[in-house]
Design goal:
Low-confidence stretches: none
Number of helices: 12
Largest sheet: 8 strands, parallel
Strand content: 15-25%
Number of strands: 12
Radius of gyration: 21 Å
Mean pLDDT: 96
Shape: globular
Helix content: 40-55%
Structural class: alpha/beta
Length: 377
């Protein structure tokens, strides 16, 4: 038997090197307790900080919309008639005309809703692209080094990047994106490629500061998978632009972590060829379409696997069922040699957690640790 620190264990998973046991993660947990959305989460945060392999993060300092160019926008709030919800209106003043969006946010910490997007038709993409852009100076090195020092052996720190295709979708919504991908495909490609170029250049500048073995992370490919979009859309708007960024990161000794919900079964080869080192959350049905045993049987250790406990199972299931799921996940994932047990979403995303949910989170942590320890070498 041998013992690795959390930092060593996670880095070996990214490097595809031998580990002592599978890793245990609670998405959203930190190396210290910190702010709590609700006090009921505190014992969960405390236990996670003590026993899990921590994923920390720092921002990359890039606004792909305008960089450091002057922010010519204005916002105001409008009451909805419900004290728990407020509509925030935002107007972007662009050289080609104004763009207007409305986001409904919660006053009690619930997830919000986009009621109106900036981009509603072809001309709006042109307006968005007319915004002046100034590339920012890279100034995250000191912040990143401080975060790594603060993390110590408890885990790793990832540099969070915007995702070009995801950002484009947030400005127009999935329905409008689907229509425009057919009616104005060249314009959709232009906005995605513009943001991808800005991200690539920014990553290059970060890497040239000499950061050692950085891990970059992003979310977003899920929005370009069926049934929302077609396989061709994934190839044209995700793979084509993400692969050069992955290649650049690997050329400088770095690694890539990607989050993608949805049905990924038919896209795992693309993620591997793209250069993803660890993919999260590899969902089973009905949300996803693949089990860990199927992934390991076909791909072995070619990809780091993070998942695949659905968050709704922790929210709603009995402890007996959750125990069975954890057993199945770890038994299957362990065979890859690159497995991180993790729920499919962050744990502190519900403003009014039930006692059942808190109890199940604590059970997930305690039994999860017991289970991964069962496979210690």
């Amino acid at each position: 038997m041998f013992q690795l620190t959390s930092h060593e264990r996670l880095m070996r998973i990214f490097r595809n090197e031998e580990i002592d046991r599978p890793a245990l993660k609670l998405w959203g947990a930190g190396a210290s307790v910190g702010w709590q959305l609700h006090e009921a989460y505190r014992p969960v945060s405390e236990l996670a900080a003590e026993i899990t392999d921590i994923f920390g993060g720092v921002g990359c300092g890039l606004n792909v919309l305008r960089g450091t160019a002057e922010d010519k926008s204005e916002s105001w709030d409008e009451q909805t008639g419900d004290p728990q919800w407020v509509d925030r209106h935002t107007v972007l003043h662009t050289p080609k005309g104004d763009l207007h969006a409305v986001h409904r946010y919660s006053t009690v910490g619930d997830p919000g809703y986009d009621m109106e997007h900036f981009i509603k038709e072809e001309e709006d993409i042109e307006k968005m692209l007319s915004l002046p852009y100034e590339a920012p100076n890279v100034n995250i090195r000191e912040y990143y080094d401080s975060a790594v020092t603060g993390m110590g052996d408890k885990g790793i720190v990832m540099i969070g990047l915007p995702h070009a295709a995801y950002v484009a979708e947030t400005y127009m919504g999935s329905e409008t994106l689907a229509y425009l991908s057919m009616d104005a495909r060249e314009l959709v490609d232009e906005i995605v490629s513009t943001y991808a170029r800005r991200i690539y250049d920014h990553v290059k500048n970060i890497l040239e500061t000499g950061i050692e073995e950085p891990i970059f992370s992003w979310v977003g490919p899920e929005l370009y998978l069926p049934p929302l979009m077609s396989p061709k859309d994934f190839n044209d708007f995700v793979y084509k632009y993400d692969k050069p960024i992955c290649d650049l990161i690997h050329e400088h000794g770095g690694y890539v972590w990607v989050h993608s919900h949805n049905k990924v079964r038919n896209f795992l080869d693309a993620f591997i060829d793209m250069g993803v080192d660890v993919l999260n959350p590899l969902e089973p049905g009905p949300n996803g379409d693949i089990t860990l045993s199927e992934v390991v049987e076909k791909y072995g250790n070619r990809l780091g696997l993070e998942g695949n406990i659905e968050i709704q199972e922790i929210l709603l299931s009995s402890k007996e069922h959750l125990r069975d799921l954890i057993d199945q996940c770890v038994e299957a994932g362990e065979k890859s040699g690159r497995f991180i047990l993790c729920p499919s979403a962050g744990y502190m995303e519900y403003a009014r957690p039930t006692e059942h949910y808190i109890d199940n989170l604590l059970f997930y942590l305690r039994y999860g640790l017991e289970t991964v320890e069962r496979y210690r070498k």
